[in-house]
Amino acid sequence: MITVENVPNLDVLIDEASTRFVDTVTEILASDTGGVHGDGVARVVFTGGGAGIKLLSRLVRAKNLDWSRIHVFFGDERNVPVYDPDSNEGQARYALLNHVNIPEANIHGYRPGNLPLDDTAANYSNAIQQHAPRGFDLHLLGMGPDGHINSLFPSSAALSEEEKLVVGVTDSPKPPAERITLTLPAVARAKEVWLLVSGSEKAEAISHLVDGEPSDEWPVTRVPALAETTLFVTEDAFSPAQ
């Protein structure tokens, strides 16, 4: 199932998504039995990309969120150190996590280091099983013009994964080639998925998504069948009148 929130521009998209994020997480934290784990702790997957990082930057203003009861995961990561400008974790720390009172133990980064990608993927899967065994409350997703989500690219072998939650990627068409990514089975463990999409270059991918025909040629089209999905999309990327 997909719900479309069509907005005029990226600024409005960030306004609406940030307000919804605060409301959603606050509701989980308001009860000792809130969230998918029934423990009053929110488990959220962050995304990189322009809209994703802008959303994180906006959340710095949310002064009433109790970050000690929020666990953060990442949809994917490039095989680079966390201080590298290409690191999703690094960008998230710079935009948000360094500015809020979140315990380091609540930030679950991939940290590939010198390990083989498969070992890093296995370690991250173990972290998910330890800290989010029942899944995620919210998975934020960006999307590329080719319809890729996380580091799941069109017609890639990773799209065929049916059991593993995390896999290594060695042939990303976008540099760097080596990455680690959550899989579609991991996306399916989210109660909600929010797609944050802006830009006319993404209109073709969005048209395939809204048409509702799942296809490995457009990975984003696989999402609505996996989890309750909300598409926050600007008018240059999609308009019902198109």
UniProtKB/TrEMBL annotation:
GO annotation terms (biological process): carbohydrate metabolic process; pentose-phosphate shunt
Signal as UniProt keyword: no
Signal peptide extent: none
Keyword Hydrolase assigned: yes
Enzyme Commission (EC) number: 3.1.1.31
Matching SUPFAM superfamilies: NagB/RpiA/CoA transferase-like (SSF100950)
InterPro entries from the UniProt entry: 6-phosphogluconolactonase_DevB, 6PGL, Glc/Gal-6P_isomerase, NagB/RpiA_transferase-like
Pfam families: Glucosamine_iso
An MF annotation (GO) of this entry: 6-phosphogluconolactonase activity
Keywords annotated in UniProt: Hydrolase
Pathway: Carbohydrate degradation; pentose phosphate pathway; D-ribulose 5-phosphate from D-glucose 6-phosphate (oxidative stage): step 2/3
Domain of life: Bacteria
Coiled coil regions, renumbered to chain: none
Catalysed transformations (reactions): 6-phospho-D-glucono-1,5-lactone + H2O = 6-phospho-D-gluconate + H(+)
Residue ranges of every copy of the Glucosamine/galactosamine-6-phosphate isomerase domain listed in the record: 12-225
Role according to the record: Hydrolysis of 6-phosphogluconolactone to 6-phosphogluconate.
PANTHER family found in the cross-reference section: 6-PHOSPHOGLUCONOLACTONASE
NCBIfam families reported for this sequence: pgl
Recorded family membership: Belongs to the glucosamine/galactosamine-6-phosphate isomerase family. 6-phosphogluconolactonase subfamily.
Entry protein name: 6-phosphogluconolactonase
Provenance organism: Corynebacterium appendicis CIP 107643
UniProt lineage: Bacteria, Bacillati, Actinomycetota, Actinomycetes, Mycobacteriales
